[in-house]
């Protein structure tokens, strides 16, 4: 079974203080003849300003929530940034490969923030993934393309960044 791997070097955090990502990373993938540009902001609580800025310049928020940790304070903050910017949110429930993973708990916790899974009658896309093994990433990318189509998102290559 083929799995998608994101191009970012996942070992990058080992060289950063405390093993915590401290920079905004950017990379681009091409899938089904369409390009998706990702801005990866640090999830650690100390990087509120970076997440706020990231929310202002993106079209879709991919909210990554660990299936073993559930909703954390910075998860709530990221939801608030995305909602304030009026952008769609896709929830990627990560670490589904871990024995203690509980994706249903994550979905339940997020309903408190008006992110109700489509499977439960809501309008929020939830994509279970394992970034470690690449499981579910193809589906996540397809969901990103679907949302960008529905929202009619188009890049303007002539516009200044």
TrEMBL record:
<comment type="function">
    <text>One of the essential components for the initiation of protein synthesis. Protects formylmethionyl-tRNA from spontaneous hydrolysis and promotes its binding to the 30S ribosomal subunits. Also involved in the hydrolysis of GTP during the formation of the 70S ribosomal complex.</text>
</comment>
<dbReference type="GO" id="GO:0003924">
    <property type="term" value="F:GTPase activity"/>
</dbReference>
<keyword id="KW-0648">Protein biosynthesis</keyword>
<dbReference type="InterPro" id="IPR000795">
    <property type="entry name" value="T_Tr_GTP-bd_dom"/>
</dbReference>
<dbReference type="GO" id="GO:0003743">
    <property type="term" value="F:translation initiation factor activity"/>
</dbReference>
<keyword id="KW-0396">Initiation factor</keyword>
<dbReference type="GO" id="GO:0005829">
    <property type="term" value="C:cytosol"/>
</dbReference>
<dbReference type="InterPro" id="IPR005225">
    <property type="entry name" value="Small_GTP-bd"/>
</dbReference>
<comment type="similarity">
    <text>Belongs to the TRAFAC class translation factor GTPase superfamily. Classic translation factor GTPase family. IF-2 subfamily.</text>
</comment>
<keyword id="KW-0342">GTP-binding</keyword>
<dbReference type="InterPro" id="IPR027417">
    <property type="entry name" value="P-loop_NTPase"/>
</dbReference>
<dbReference type="Pfam" id="PF00009">
    <property type="entry name" value="GTP_EFTU"/>
</dbReference>
<keyword id="KW-0547">Nucleotide-binding</keyword>
<feature type="domain" description="Tr-type G">
    <location>
        <begin position="1"/>
        <end position="154"/>
    </location>
</feature>
<dbReference type="GO" id="GO:0005525">
    <property type="term" value="F:GTP binding"/>
</dbReference>
<dbReference type="InterPro" id="IPR015760">
    <property type="entry name" value="TIF_IF2"/>
</dbReference>
<protein>
    <submittedName>
        <fullName>Translational initiation factor IF2</fullName>
    </submittedName>
</protein>
